[in-house]
């Protein structure tokens, strides 16, 4: 054993040394260490190597899917009001009678409320629970009875509740008041570790309750933040906004993966089609590298004129989804073993706000066109979004 350890140490020194060793030699050293570990744990050119397993500080472990035997997920979004109310019965019947097998349920919602009456002191100190879901244990038992894969949706940095409770964790105007967007919503600061820890604590409780995946949403700064940052007071570090957001995702994954739950992140669909969105701090590849599942929101209604050569994208659901998936595959082509499962959000709502001639009513035909585009792109998992949880009837889910 001492000889093996000495050999690994020599190889590690070769790998991380500052001399003029050839890349081929470093790649060979990496290969031997990886083989000894039984998994890929290092890359020969990894920057800032840290956290070496076994006490050899300097090599970071690559993510491992904690649920490799999970089925291909086809799910629907369910608000806490639906999950804890009368609509849940019809949603269960819908899932039972189709190829759908999952529900994404709000556990910390768009306002920042924890959606069930938690008794955990750590969460009560920072958060504000509601009784939208009166009995979370009963809900989890129901999902298990119906063989529904439960995903906990946690809205992270859009959190009006926390911003009001602890303004120092938010973004402040020069007069000390909390910044709000045009809908009256506030965000909290992705640079603050306290915000990271709070959201991870909510996620850990969701894991203990029986959720098999944690889906983080609003993992970003406010839209257009690059035009506001200089006029607001908030804590920041030398990190870029992109690295601050990616740092949270990495931290959350490292905290949650040992609990046996997957980590997923919702991200703007167009993020796969453009360079990093530095204003809001979202880099598609950096986030994808540290999640088990990436869920780009590729609703046709959310693309403007010209995207994927469509004058009015909402009128062309197949073409938009196909184009979005082509860009997604290209964006992730270099991620190799770090590539996450691609599970997009697709549209099951009518975007009437776009105006006459620019939208159409979405139903069975339009939803099936999006699913066909995913299948034709080699993507077998998806989630359906309808904010009111009123999903189109008679859809054939493939």
Helix and strand element order: HHEHHEHHEHHEHEHEHEEHE
* Arithmetic mean pLDDT: 88
State the CATH architecture of the largest domain.
Answer: Alpha-Beta Barrel
- Poorly predicted regions: 1-60
Q: N- to C-terminal separation? A: 52 Å
Q: Which range best describes the helical content: under 10%, 10-25%, 25-40%, 40-55%, 55-70% or over 70%?
A: 25-40%
Which band does the percent of strand residues land in?
5-15%
| SS-derived structural category | alpha/beta
Main CATH class of the largest domain: Alpha Beta
How many runs of DSSP E, i.e. beta strands? 9
Radius of gyration: 22 Å
Counting DSSP H or I runs of 4 or more residues, the number of helices is: 12
How many separate domains? Answer: 2
What would CATH call the homologous superfamily of the largest domain?
A: Glycosidases
Strand order of the largest sheet: 7-6-5-4-3-2-1-9-8
Write down the CATH topology of the largest domain.
Answer: TIM Barrel
Shape designation: globular
Query: What kind of sheet is the major sheet?
Result: 9 strands, parallel
Protein name: DUF4015 domain-containing protein
Organism: Paenibacillus harenae
Domain DUF4015: 75-391
Pfam families: DUF4015
What characteristics describe this protein?
globular, GH, TIM Barrel, DUF4015 domain-containing protein, DUF4015, alpha/beta, 2 domains, disordered N terminus, 12 helices, 9-stranded parallel β-sheet, 398 residues
């Amino acid at each position: 054993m001492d000889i093996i350890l000495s050999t690994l140490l020599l190889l590690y020194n070769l790998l991380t040394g500052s001399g003029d060793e050839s890349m081929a030699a470093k790649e060979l050293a990496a290969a031997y260490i990886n083989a000894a570990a039984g998994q890929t744990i290092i890359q020969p050119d990894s920057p800032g190597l840290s956290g070496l397993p076994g006490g050899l500080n300097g090599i970071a472990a690559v993510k491992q899917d904690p649920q490799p035997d999970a089925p291909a997920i086809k799910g629907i979004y369910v608000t806490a009001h639906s999950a804890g109310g009368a609509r849940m019965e019809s949603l269960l019947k819908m899932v039972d009678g189709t190829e759908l097998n999952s529900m994404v349920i709000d556990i910390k919602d768009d306002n920042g409320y924890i959606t069930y009456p938690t008794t955990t002191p750590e969460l009560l100190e920072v958060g504000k629970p509601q009784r939208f879901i009166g009995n979370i244990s009963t809900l989890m038992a129901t999902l298990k009875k119906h063989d529904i894969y439960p995903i906990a949706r946690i809205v992270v940095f859009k959190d009006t509740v926390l911003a009001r409770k602890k303004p120092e964790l938010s973004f402040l105007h020069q007069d000390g008041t909390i910044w709000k967007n045009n809908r009256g919503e506030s965000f909290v600061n992705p640079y603050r570790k306290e915000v990271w820890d709070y959201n991870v604590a909510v996620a850990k409780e969701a894991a203990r309750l029986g959720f098999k995946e944690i889906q983080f949403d609003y993992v970003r700064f406010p839209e257009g933040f690059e035009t506001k940052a200089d006029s607001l007071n908030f804590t920041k570090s030398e990190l870029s906004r992109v690295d601050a957001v990616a740092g949270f995702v990495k931290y959350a994954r490292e905290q949650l993966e040992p609990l046996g739950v997957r980590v997923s992140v919702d991200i703007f669909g167009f993020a796969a089609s453009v360079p990093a969105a530095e204003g809001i701090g979202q880099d598609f590849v950096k986030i994808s590298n540290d999640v088990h599942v990436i869920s780009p929101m590729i609703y046709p209604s959310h693309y403007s004129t010209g995207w994927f050569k469509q004058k009015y994208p909402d009128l062309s659901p197949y073409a938009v989804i196909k184009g979005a998936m082509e860009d997604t595959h290209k964006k992730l082509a270099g991620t190799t073993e770090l590539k996450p499962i691609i599970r997009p959000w697709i549209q099951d709502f009518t975007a009437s706000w776009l105006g006459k001639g620019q939208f159409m009513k979405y139903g069975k035909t339009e939803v099936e066109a999006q699913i066909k585009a995913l299948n034709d792109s080699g993507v077998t998992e998806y989630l359906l979004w309808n904010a009111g949880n009123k999903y189109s009837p008679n859809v054939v889910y493939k």
